[in-house]
Amino acid sequence: xxxxxxxxxxxxxxxxxxxxxxxxxxxxxxxxxxxxxxxxxxxxxxxxxxxxxxxxxxxxxxxxxxxxxxxxxxxxxxxxxxxxxxxxxxxxxxxxxxxxxxxxxxxxxxxxxxxxxxxxxxxxxxxxxxxxxxxxxxxxxxxxxxxxxxxxxxxxxxxxxxxxxxxxxxxxxxxxxxxxxxxxxxxxxxxxxxxxxxxxxxxxxxxxxxxxxxxxxxxxxxxxxxxxxxxxxxxxxxxxxxxxxxxxxxxxxxxxxxxxxxxxxxxxxxxxxxxxxxxxxxxxxxxxxxxxxxxxxxxxxxxxxxxxxxxxxxxxxxxxxxxxxxxxxxxxxxxxxxxxxxxxxxxxxxxxxxxxxxxxxxxxxxxxxxxxxxxxxxxxxxxxxxxxx
Length: 389
Description:
Layout: E1 24-27, E2 33-37, E3 44-49, H1 56-66, E4 69-74, H2 78-85, E5 92-95, H3 97-105, E6 134-135, E7 138-139, E8 142-148, E9 150-154, E10 177-180, H4 185-196, H5 210-223, E11 227-231, H6 234-242, E12 248-251, H7 253-261, E13 266-269, E14 275-284, H8 291-301, H9 304-314, E15 317-318, H10 324-329, H11 339-342, H12 348-352, E16 354-356, H13 375-387
Parallel strand pairs: 3-4, 3-5, 10-11, 10-12, 14-16
Antiparallel strand pairs: 1-2, 5-14, 6-7, 8-14, 8-15, 9-12, 9-13
């Protein structure tokens, strides 16, 4: 998971974006009620969030504009966030794609009305109704930030320049490879196999039957002796590339840009097989005590100005490309010029090459029925891979 922290303070209240009608609800068939009109603010908002998503530079103006006082509990992992949401003590969560479907299936979150989010219409198409937060046309959250998992390499040590994920499974760079410490890494192996071993019939790297799952796990087991370290934070990978411990790895744009800014000779590529990626979603708890404040928060967080602030602080790409105008004009302590160009924010072909994270479910979501491998088995298998068993 990515937890990166750089501070950049920008000022301005965006109250106009928070203007929504009076209260109302409607009943969604087979699910919780959907708020059709936001009502009076409850004056409080209790969030579970990734560190960096509730910074004072945008929280304080929000509270001043709405009267909603934000209290945030930082989650250390998607698993922890799911557990916390099930306590019923929180109004909402900034869930990544490897948690969102778990929360939907578990009925821990309620459907939302994107018509109450003024900037929703400006979102990139891929993040309006993505599979990780929208089920059968019903929205269970509002996208916030996103990023791809690219192939990072040291241009002085890795020659020729790699074009395929296959280099991460090659013994040529044994002991110099690093990949994320995350069970979703199985999807990266499955994506690679979907192109290199088409006979397996992998169509979706998150919907794997037993045979496909075993093939992906076996590939990771073969990779295990090649790994220098499984990185848990962006800083872990940055340090590995700086000290020469790693010359190849799966990465995010933040690490690439930070390393380049430090003078390390690195480059990132989109492999021919495509890539996985993550997108975070604000999700409203089924038992939220402050739903109106949460709607105001969701609207606030996707305004162009706040999207700019979060992108510059967090090192992620904005869901709302309207932020690019400000990102191009000014850049803060994160220090990246041409931000939206570097992050391919307006490149539709780039989006199309990403298989965004979603929680693996036993139900394949098609005519195959309950024949796919569920997330709990992914976690168990990945722990076994790391243990070398």
